[in-house]
Amino acid sequence: MKKLFVIFILTALSTFSVTAQTSLPLQYFELAKKLITPTPKNDLVKVNTSSVNAPASSSTLIDFAKTMLGIPYRYATSNPKVGFDCSGFVSYVFNNLGFKVPRSSREFPSVGKETNLENAKVGDVLIFTGTNPRVRKVGHVAIIYSIDADGIKFIHSTSGKEHGVTITPFNDYYKSRFMKVVSII
Length: 185
Hints:
About 35% of the residues lie in helices and about 25% in strands. It is an alpha+beta fold. The protein has two domains: about 1-50; about 55-185, endopeptidase fold (from Nostoc punctiforme) (Alpha-Beta Complex). β8 and β9 (about 165-170) form a beta hairpin. The radius of gyration is 18 Å and the shape is globular. One of its GO terms (biological process) is proteolysis. It comes from Pedobacter changchengzhani. GO terms for molecular function: cysteine-type peptidase activity.
């Protein structure tokens, strides 16, 4: 009976992982195929880390996130075929590269390692309030896209005028909403 249960679980996991691998839209499948390889035992998806160190992990994360630029905003969704809300986008990107993160923006403050903006790096997650900066509750998340002399830029799915996945500068509006930054990579 125990062996039958184990066989059932392995079959279910194998079926799930094959479905998960092929559920990427065609335009993202080629990039994902380069980044993700099946494990020999049970075909579960795992990140190919053989030639990737920490900086490459963040660049791989950003390269994958950039493939979704322009996908429309859609509340409570984490499906590139339909659209993303902010946390749906962030969780989709991290989960597809082998990092376990929450689906809800409200849960992001408790993951990873908290750091400050001065020590933030590309691939870290910015946590913001909702659209009203006076209400100091988590309402938005984004991934740091770049840090240079012009400041921080982040990639996120916004319900604002871009209404989809876009790259935005860390401007005064977002500075007023900023709550914290967490490092997951």
